[in-house]
Design goal:
With 153 residues, the protein is mainly beta. The chain is built from two helices and nine strands, in the order αββαβββββββ. The strands form two sheets. A five-stranded mixed barrel has the order 3-4-5-9-6. Strands 7-8 form a two-stranded antiparallel sheet. Strand 7 and strand 8 form a beta hairpin. The longest helix has 16 residues.
Length: 153
């Protein structure tokens, strides 16, 4: 009798622990459904933003790498060797690693982050008791994207 109960418990627990990955067919949605009416290519986002630091926009581009499946962290090609780092606003969204190489449409907020690459951001950088004053003419910029919805194109 114990063997039958053990066999039944194992039989019913296997489907519970089996993981299913969503298919990556055209139209597969992660998060909320994105607005596809005013979609801009990922390579043109930075030019479209002009001097704005943060903008709500829908973009279309190719996923180059899924860095973390849980929370939906990934990188997109922005053209000319640039990369857009993106993540979902809702951490509960999980994306498959097989998404790399697929073209997607994203809806969310793009923002520019300026990075001081010459060490000016460290407090107390001193040379013989005097503060260093270096003027950086072209700071390195990074484009990040907080995704609310994504659809595989």
């Amino acid at each position: 009798m114990k063997k039958i109960h053990l066999l039944l418990a194992l039989l019913f627990s296997v489907p519970v622990f089996a993981q299913t990955h969503p298919s990556l067919a055209h139209g597969t949605i992660f998060g909320a459904k994105p607005d596809t009416t005013g979609v801009i290519a990922a390579s043109k986002v930075e030019g479209f933003m002009d001097k704005k630091v943060r903008i709500s926009i829908s973009i279309k581009g190719k996923v180059t790498k899924v860095t973390k499946s849980k929370g939906g962290w990934f990188e997109m090609d922005a053209g000319k060797g640039r990369v857009i780092t993106a993540h979902f606003k809702n951490y509960g969204v999980t994306i498959p690693t097989a998404l790399a190489g697929h073209t997607v449409i994203l809806d969310g907020i793009a923002s520019k982050q300026f990075i001081a690459d010459d060490g000016q951001h460290f407090a107390g950088d001193t040379v013989n008791g005097k503060k260093q004053h270096r003027v950086k003419t072209n700071p390195q910029r990074r484009l990040t994207y907080e995704v609310t919805g994504m659809m595989v194109d």
